[in-house]
Design goal:
Pathway: Amino-acid biosynthesis; L-methionine biosynthesis via de novo pathway; L-homocysteine from L-cystathionine: step 1/1. This protein is an alpha/beta fold. The protein has 14 helices and twelve strands. It binds pyridoxal-5'-phosphate (PLP).
Length: about 400
């Protein structure tokens, strides 16, 4: 089945839809059984897609899990109430006191905070590594290294990792790899084909796609599914069937949305790349993005999220630019239908990393390009950059 067909067909087995087009929203805490023996049978099968207790999910969850497995190519999908919960749930499922963890230096800020606070308190030591390290990661491996954590492209600065080089080294040492695959979404990268063991999605972003649900997933292979599922269950992770219904609805248009986000963002990226006030554009599809060659090799497309670095600018200029934007809204998150913008001075970017230097002197602007008309977005950015320049 081709991908566009999968967006339509996945998670829609008759068992979940009962003849309607979409699976029903099935709410449950308690599930009632016809007899003691039926209850016993359900208990024995509680790991599979059977109604047992609400926390294990209902048919709405099973439909969404089927869809995510089909799209990402995994065999099991654990569900979490946010992307951040998927990250902590995955790490806590595979690590224990005394373990060592390798984490990419441009990782999503809350992931770094988790490693430096809670995981550290639990006796798990983290070493950060250069996003462009590739096979040289081998030199950082210790006898107690249990997990290598990747995010590609990484948050804000967008370096694209050499995922297969790292998973190859990890396999040779019996180390588990996890990838925050949110940027690619289930559309543009097949994590298991690149040797990744656990693929994490902030489904909050493109899967849901409408900025109205918090949701996370961790998809994995047959080898690791029991451990991920049972430990996440012990952590009490579960999700609302209403949210899962919206996420399933999001999947139906994921392919077409991503194509339009990609088209719009590339148009904006090329327009920015030609400007005299822009130092360079960090869009994985452009050669000026570090790790661009890995993007070309491993990804089947891009999306609406990228950054660009200005030659000059100060905080007052960033504030004037952002405060006056018409179509771009100031906000965290991304992956919805609307355009968003954030701006950071270089000191802030440098502060978010610990083993790689940030040598840029101008501000970094991160944009999420939504589904608006690109001419409106270009004019909005053009006026914004003029406001920023007034403060130079
Ligand atoms: C937003 C984001 C997350 C966290 O997702 P939430 O649902 O907001 O908790 C994780 N990783 C990346 C790369 C993200 O952009």
């Amino acid at each position: 089945m081709k991908k566009d067909t999968k967006f339509v067909a996945s998670g829609r087995s008759k068992e979940w839809t009962r003849g309607a087009v979409n699976p029903a929203v099935v709410r449950a805490s308690t599930v009632v059984f016809d007899s003691v023996s039926e209850m016993k049978k359900a208990t024995q099968q509680r790991h599979s897609k059977t109604l047992f207790y609400g926390r294990r999910g209902t048919s709405t969850a099973f439909a969404f899990q089927d869809a995510m497995n089909e799209l990402e190519g995994g065999v099991g999908c654990a569900l979490y109430p946010s992307g951040t919960a998927a990250i902590s749930g995955s790490l806590l499922s595979f690590l224990q006191a005394g373990d060592h963890l390798l984490v990419v230096d441009n990782v999503y800020e809350p992931t770094r905070d988790l490693c430096d606070t809670l995981l550290s308190r639990y006796g798990i030591e983290t070493t950060y590594y250069d996003p462009l390290i590739g096979a040289d990661i081998e030199a950082l491996i210790q006898p107690n290294t249990k997990v290598i954590y990747l995010e590609s492209p990484g948050s804000l600065t967008m370096e694209v990792q050499d995922v297969p080089a790292i998973t190859h080294v990890a396999r040779a040492h019996g180390i588990l790899t996890m990838l925050d695959n949110t940027w690619a979404s289930p559309v543009n990268l097949q994590p298991f084909e690149l040797g990744v063991d656990v693929s994490i999605q902030a489904a909050t972003k493109y899967v849901v796609g409408h900025s109205d649900v918090m949701l996370g997933t961790a998809t994995t292979t047959a080898e690791h599914w029991d451990q991920l599922r049972e430990n996440s269950y012990l952590l009490g992770q579960c999700t609302s069937p209403d949210d899962l219904y919206l996420a399933l609805r999001g999947i139906r248009t994921l392919g077409v949305r991503m194509k339009q986000h990609q088209k719009n963002a590339l148009e904006l990226a090329y327009w920015l790349a030609k400007r005299a006030d822009v130092d360079h554009v960090r869009h994985p599809a452009l050669a000026t993005c570090p790790g661009h060659e890995h993007f070309i090799r491993d990804f089947s497309g891009s999306n609406g999220l990228f950054s660009f670095v200005l030659k000059k600018g100060n905080q007052a200029g960033i504030n004037a630019m952002l405060d006056g934007m018409e179509h771009f809204k100031i906000g965290f998150s991304w992956g919805g239908f609307e355009s968003l913008i954030l701006g950071h001075m270089p000191e802030h970017i440098a502060h978010l990393r610990s083993v790689t230097d940030w040598q840029q002197t101008g501000p970094l602007i991160r944009v999420h390009i939504g589904l608006e008309d690109t001419q409106d977005l270009i004019e909005d950015l053009d006026r914004g950059l003029a406001r920023l320049a007034e403060h130079l």
